[in-house]
Amino acid sequence: MKIDLRISALLLAITWGTYAPASETASSGRWTIWSASPASRWEDAFVTGNGRHGTMVWGRPKDERITCVHEELFIRGWSRHLKTVPFTAPLLPEVRRLVNEGSNDKADSLITTEAEKQMQAMGARQRWPLIPHPAFDLHIRHLDNVSKADSYRRQLNMENGVTSVFGCDGGQGTEDVFSSREHNLNVIRLKAGKGEKLHVLLALEETPGRKGMHFEHNLDSAFLFAEAKAEPGWLTYQAAYRQDPGGYEGTARVIPKGGIMRQLSEGLEIEGADEVLILLRISPLEDWKKSTIPTVKKELSGLPASYCQLLAPHAKLHGEMFRRMQLDLGQEEKWKTIPVEKMLSDIHREGMTPLFMEQIHAMGRYLLISSCGKYSPPLQGIWGGGWKPAWIGGFVWDSNINLAISAAAMSNLPECAESYCTYVEHLLPGWRLNARNYLGCRGFLVAHYNDPENGYLTHFGRSFPWMCWAGGAGWNLRPFYEYAMLTGNDAMLKERVLPLYREMAAFYKDFLLMEKDSLYHFIPSISPENAAYGTDTWLSRDATMDVAIAHDVFGILLELGEKFNLPAQERKEWQHYLNHLPVYRINKDGALAEWVDPHYPDVYDHRHLSHLYPVFPGGQLRKDKGEPRLREAAKKALDKRFEFDTSSAHGLIHVALQAARLGDLDKVRTNLNRFCRRHYVYNSLVTSHDPEHQVYNLDAVLSLPRLFMEMLVYTEPGKTELLPAWPKEYADGKLIGIRLYGGHQLSMEWKDGKLTEVQLKAGKDDTLQVYYQEKSKSLQLKAGQTYQIKL
């Protein structure tokens, strides 16, 4: 008998609306997504995370898996302690000569062959440095035949970070899971249904699928050993890597309420319990021989054996972060009545819907909160239920991490912005060594892929000589500037941002080459992941992105120089470099060219939009900013990328971000609809890199909140525009708590495409020009004051 999905959803909403499970008590329940179907694969699992620990809850009733993850677990190709940065600086003059002669392939071969030779001698034999992997699965098997469940439901409460399964035992039993921010562990509670008892077998098991080769790594022999043990009240797991001296451990305290616990060879059997509480911590080890299990057992034994006591401090911390900013499009009731599968079916058929916008915006911020810890989120965030992630699931610095953290400071998550900045500061010694050894320069040279512990540039090869990418560091320092500006933190600007930009200026002084035209040129240069027509290598000269990033760096230095009254001679020098950078080229199609040098013909059919850096994330060009001819050329270049219609989810979002800056609402609408209709979103509300759920990847879901914010609010120093790219036919709603440059916080409401209320809380004394349609208003702000703005 087939039941209409809408009716089924309504019945479930009525059923669960009368029952408030414990996991809901620490939140309003407003921001809860749900499904009436089990997650049969890990990609559809609802996830939890505290930035370091995380879980993926999936499986079928009576046979559940909780894949446990930690951000610091990597299969490495060599010891993390090796200093693997080749010395190729003496080759730079010859590389430049060959590039200028048009012998780019020879220049590529010269530097990559020498670097490869040195890497092999160091013992670093793979160019794909490491693979993130799951720690293990907590396998939960319910052994009794219990009464048939009235209904099954799994859900994720984004407001308190708890994922729950109702009917997990085939009956009325429940399962609640969260990753505690307060105690840095995963908490799992199993609870018997009314009139029932739990009978479960618990085991820590290696996540299935570790076999074969993956990007030069032999997974079969990746570990010296990996073993699980059980003793009364405890489950443990120990693993040691083969190529690296590190490893990791898992320690789980198992606390039954009532019943009998039996130790078995495969785990712990618990029978007759009303409830089972599991406190599970993963401990990465630099030296696997130095076990932390005794210490962790002592710490876990000191924690309350109460789920509610453990949840309360976590929910307070997580919820305060989540609630700071909200996009509310009036869909609250639909969250309660429409399951995730129905919502995704609707957008596949209809395109963008208000419910999807609300849910994916909330999910993007939830995932950012849950995955920013010691590191910023790589391609899969901290999650992954397999051993063979695409592109090694890596830390990729030429649009992926950039987009992933783009919403952090603007969406009022300074903790996530700080996580990124602290992470980059940890990598700076490695980036300095890259610049010195590869190019003989001061300053920084970013690694396209890197081991997150050191930042060394080890990923390169013929046709992709990443040691020649001068622009990467400037791109990846810009979030420092945005973070300081959006929080109004002048001390950070002076003490953390300014020194980094001075070092970037030192890099350019050493690297840039003045030629007979009295301009400083980028030789060699790279436009990330793209090669001009007729060439077999990315190696080039004067890629527009490299020039644009240098513009950005020197422009910010001059801004800070004026703000902090820096020495006139230093400012004069920065202005000199800015004045003598190559001029952007407009090609024969009227488009902003991807390479300033006309010897490099444009390639339009590509997912990257590097040459449009001046539009986003830079700030040189916008619909009302920059030279008119360059604005028109940027629009034409965007037309070309738009016509290509990339299958890459992050490429679609990147085009839409730049279209929003240029005021092209048609492209914003179209790319959002393309995204909605192509099955980029799993039932977990995590996104895929490719259509039809091909590659689990967080770039899109983490960057969509930034896109929605850019559609609603544009901000730069001293200026804000409201509703700059929000189509009139899109939903009415309100935005609460967005950050503006100057450290101000803005909330607003709109109806029928028109503002109805705007409120601003000033972060500091400031002058702010507010624009809306054809209107503008100048405000003199006083720190801490709240203003109702009428336009």
Can you give a write-up of this model?
This protein has 791 residues and is α+β, with helices and mostly antiparallel strands. It is 33% helix and 23% strand. It has 18 helices and 33 strands. A hairpin with a 2-residue loop joins strand 29 (744-751) and strand 30. Helix 10 (414-439) packs antiparallel against helix 11, helix 12 packs across helix 13 (544-563) and helix 15 runs antiparallel to helix 16 (649-662). The chain starts with a helix and ends with a strand.
SSE order and pairing:
Elements: H1 5-17, E1 32-35, E2 46-49, E3 53-60, E4 63-70, E5 74-76, H2 92-100, H3 104-122, E6 130-132, E7 136-142, E8 153-157, E9 162-166, E10 174-180, E11 185-191, E12 198-205, E13 213-214, E14 217-218, E15 223-231, E16 234-241, E17 247-257, E18 260-263, E19 268-273, E20 275-285, H4 293-301, H5 307-323, E21 326-328, H6 332-337, H7 340-350, H8 354-371, H9 400-404, H10 414-439, H11 472-487, H12 490-511, E22 513-514, E23 520-521, E24 525-526, E25 539-540, H13 544-563, H14 568-579, H15 628-644, H16 649-662, H17 665-677, H18 699-712, E26 713-716, E27 719-722, E28 733-740, E29 744-751, E30 754-761, E31 766-772, E32 775-781, E33 786-788
Parallel strand pairs: 27-31
Antiparallel strand pairs: 1-8, 2-3, 3-4, 4-7, 5-6, 7-12, 8-9, 9-10, 10-11, 11-20, 12-19, 13-14, 15-16, 16-17, 17-20, 18-19, 21-28, 22-23, 24-25, 26-27, 28-29, 29-30, 30-33, 31-32
Helix pairs in contact: 2-3, 8-18, 10-11, 11-12, 11-13, 12-13, 13-14, 15-16, 16-17, 16-18
